[in-house]
Design goal:
heterodimer; A: about 425 residues; mainly alpha; MetI-like fold; 3-stranded antiparallel sheet; elongated; B: 9-stranded mixed sheet
Chain lengths: ~425, ~350
């Protein structure tokens, strides 16, 4: 048997092995894909109820006597009027047969508590409505809203039998309508599910990430450039290198503790502010950016440097005009991976007070704010049933945020990529 | 470069002094049990008055008091919530750090329930059953005054009237205030049914506490994290297990889980309010009096928290699962809170 025959004999076995290995790879991808699919279906199906909200139509009489204000009241006097009372009257007008005190309060409980503030704002804006009647749509309370959304109507325990009868009658009379829940995207947090939105957390996340980006990108890239291109090779530089690699593996809560001790207690920066959050997350993302940038810089072929130096460029010119532009795709990918990590972080924020109930939407870097993952955590922990859907909806928004960021990374990489 | 560094540090110092000069948002920290109630009050307060909505951090009772007692000054919180009364040691720390006048406000009660899935039969427990089933060490079954590691495997072993299911209780971890209260109210309550253990209290308080408050670690009690919603979901999936959580979660999930009877009382609004249901605890918040004229709106916030509209018999907090005080007590608390009477230990 000569060599050719020997190799031929072994061929089928080698082909089989290759096929098997391909199959394994495909199976691994499939398993990962199936898990992702299950996760996404679960989140999306659970989040669906959060995107709609039921509204009730009411004929409201802005009666000054019931409101407890003078007939020609304006502005400030209207602020503290009794709007709950005109709402109660309006819904009782739909159900004239309800007479007992307890039933009346159960009936009024079908309307969201936000309705009175909406009526207040409406009247302050349009004072001529005082003494007149107007048809308004108000949000349904989360218990009623959940009742309409659940398929299993027989098992509704949050509503009494009477309330269910009223709810059905509202539906028969076409006084109830399901609309797209824009509150979810336009409002801050609330303890009433029908009024809760993620705008506050989204804006907080944006501010925090902006601080992180503005600090960690220049710091990280300059560190990487110095260490890779300029630093002498000695023991000190090695020590710094080991430390940076170590920092990348430190649990994130440690950075939170550091932030509390340094930024809040020592520098006196405000608690719960995106500025402090951004500073802490900068500490956390720096090692990621430095390590990614260094390997990107290292991957630029030495011939490019030598060519630049050869035609008389200085070291700085070589680095900034030739090496950095070529390393940019890798640096940007590293930065965005680091930022994506920072976006999903809650543990370090716990220490600096960003895990908090904050209703007002932050207006700047030192306003109290919270971030998306914290909002998800807070909603997941709330007893009200309707928050289950809200939690999933918030997770979806976070995922979309992440996809957009990663998409940006791919786009930038494609744009700057150059082959040689 | 040097100029840049100097200007940046100058900017930072300016911005920090600008921040340190004042704060117009009330800062509240403390118990995760009071959090659902305090947040509702804060939100309504923000909407109905011209003050900003207070910021509330859920740090746990102990963590809240620690922050609260750190000192006076606008970088420390104005109010702390607690699901237990402030301890004497904590009060002394407060005094030492210059937080002299503290106003104590009792807002109501919270029940701790031991629930199982609705598909399983409802259990009738006594606190003694709970102690025997969950304590780390229990008195030997032969009646001698000796402690042995908890030998019980099923509920039937504990009490012949109970089903022969394996003891499996999902509950909060030791960092939780709910766990502390559960140990104190349910376990210690059952513990006291043994006269000889009760006698230890006067001679060796430490030992008494370790007997009555230690929960077994052999897998019968499963720490399920701080998330009570998760416990409810796990109970639904496993009808043989029991879960320990706050009353408001039972109130919201009445179609999925049912509360076990403890000492013959069902965990309901009325039974917890009357004290008939034994596993319930008071909820408080504490106000730093020195901050009253530093941060706007504190007095008004306290007023709206104690108003009849919030904690009264028909108040909006009841809808969130708070158990109200009786009327006389409520009026007393309101009067004391509105006049900002400092507490004494």
């Amino acid at each position: 048997m000569n060599n050719t025959e020997l190799i031929k004999k072994g061929l089928p076995k080698r082909y089989r092995r290759e096929k098997r290995f391909r199959l394994y790879g495909m199976m691994a991808v499939m398993v990962g894909f199936i898990f992702l699919l299950i996760l996404l279906t679960d989140i999306i199906s659970k989040s669906l109820p959060a995107f709609s909200q039921h509204w009730i139509q009411l004929e409201v009489q802005f009666d000054p006597d019931v409101l407890g204000v003078a007939a020609d009241a304006e502005g400030k006097a209207l602020r503290h009027a009794n709007y709950r009372a005109i709402l109660k009257r309006a819904i009782r007008a739909e159900f004239p047969d309800v007479s007992k005190r307890r039933d009346k309060s159960k009936l009024a409980a079908l309307i969201s508590s936000s309705a009175e503030y909406e009526l207040r704002d409406m009247l302050i804006e349009q004072p001529y409505l005082l003494g007149k009647a107007k048809t308004v749509w108000v949000r349904a309370d989360d218990d009623l809203d959940t009742y309409y959304k659940t398929a299993d109507k027989a098992n509704a325990v949050r509503l009494t039998e009477k309330q269910i009868a009223w709810a059905d009658r509202l539906q028969e009379n076409n006084l109830i309508e399901s609309r797209f829940n824009s509150t979810l995207f336009s409002d801050g947090d609330s303890r009433e599910p029908e009024q809760a939105g993620i705008r506050g957390a989204l804006v907080g996340s944006l501010y925090t990430l902006l601080v992180t980006l503005l600090l960690s990108f220049p710091l990280g890239v300059s560190t990487a450039v110095y260490l890779e291109e300029f630093a002498p090779k000695n023991r000190w530089v090695d020590l710094i290198e080991v430390n940076i690699n170590n920092l990348a593996a430190v649990p994130s809560i440690v950075f939170g503790l550091l932030g509390l001790a340094v930024f809040i207690n020592y520098f006196g920066l405000p608690r719960s502010a995106p500025l402090v959050g951004g500073l802490v997350l900068t500490l956390m993302t720096l090692p990621t950016i430095i390590i990614a940038s260094r390997s990107a810089i290292k991957a630029v072929p030495p011939s490019i440097r030598q060519a630049a130096l050869g035609i008389g460029a200085s070291k700085t010119q070589t680095v900034f005009q030739h090496v950095l532009p070529l390393a940019m795709p890798g640096i940007l990918t590293g930065t965005i991976i680091g930022l994506a990590q920072a976006l999903g972080e809650t543990a370090p924020l716990l220490m600096i007070g960003m895990v908090a109930f904050i209703v007002d939407i932050p207006q700047g870097f030192v306003d109290s704010a919270t971030v998306l993952p914290v909002q998800i955590y807070l909603w997941a922990d709330s007893p009200e049933r309707a928050f289950v859907a809200k939690t999933s909806a918030a997770i979806l928004v976070l995922l979309i945020f992440l996809v957009v960021m990663n998409g940006l990374a791919v786009f930038l990489r494609k744009k700057f990529e150059r082959s040689w | 470069m040097k100029k840049l560094i100097i200007s940046i540090s100058l900017m930072l110092s300016f911005s920090t002094t600008g921040i340190a000069a004042g704060r117009d948002t009330i800062s509240i920290v403390g118990s995760s049990t009071v959090y659902p109630f305090a947040t509702v009050v804060a939100e309504r307060f923000g909407k109905s008055t011209s003050f900003k909505t207070p910021k509330i951090e859920s740090t746990g009772s102990g963590g809240g008091v620690k922050l609260f007692c750190a000192g006076i000054g606008i970088d420390s919180p104005d109010i702390t919530n607690a699901s237990r009364r402030i301890k004497e040691s904590e009060f002394n720390t407060c005094q030492k750090n210059g937080v002299k006048d503290i106003v104590e406000v009792l807002i109501g009660y919270d029940g701790i329930v031991i629930a199982n899935a609705k598909s399983a039969p409802r259990l009738q427990l006594t606190r003694k059953d709970i102690f025997l089933a969950l304590a780390k060490e229990v008195p030997a079954a032969d009646g001698s005054e000796k402690l042995i590691p908890n030998p019980y495997k099923t509920w039937k072993d504990v009490n012949p009237a109970l089903p022969a299911d394996r003891i499996e209780v999902l509950g909060p971890p030791p960092t939780s205030g709910t766990r502390d209260a559960f140990s104190e109210l349910a376990l210690e309550g059952g513990c006291q049914s043994f006269e000889w253990i009760k006698a230890i209290k006067s001679s060796d308080k430490q030992r008494y506490k370790s007997i009555c408050h230690s929960i077994r670690e052999d897998g019968a009690y499963i720490e399920a994290g701080e998330n009570d919603n998760l416990i409810v979901q796990k109970l639904e999936a496993n009808p043989k297990a029991l879960g320990v959580f706050g009353f408001s979660f039972l109130d919201q999930n009445g179609d999925k889980v049912q509360g076990s009877l403890v000492d013959g009382a069902e965990p309901e609004f009325e039974t917890i309010a009357s004290g008939e249901y034994p596993v319930s605890r008071p909820l408080y918040f504490y106000v730093k009096k020195a901050h009253l004229d530093k941060v706007p709106g504190i007095a008004e916030y306290v007023q709206s928290f104690t108003s009849e509209n919030a904690v009264g018999d028909d108040g909006y907090l009841l809808d969130k699962g708070l158990i109200p005080l009786d009327e006389a007590k409520r009026n007393h608390v309101r009067a004391a809170a509105n006049s900002m009477q400092p507490m004494t230990m």
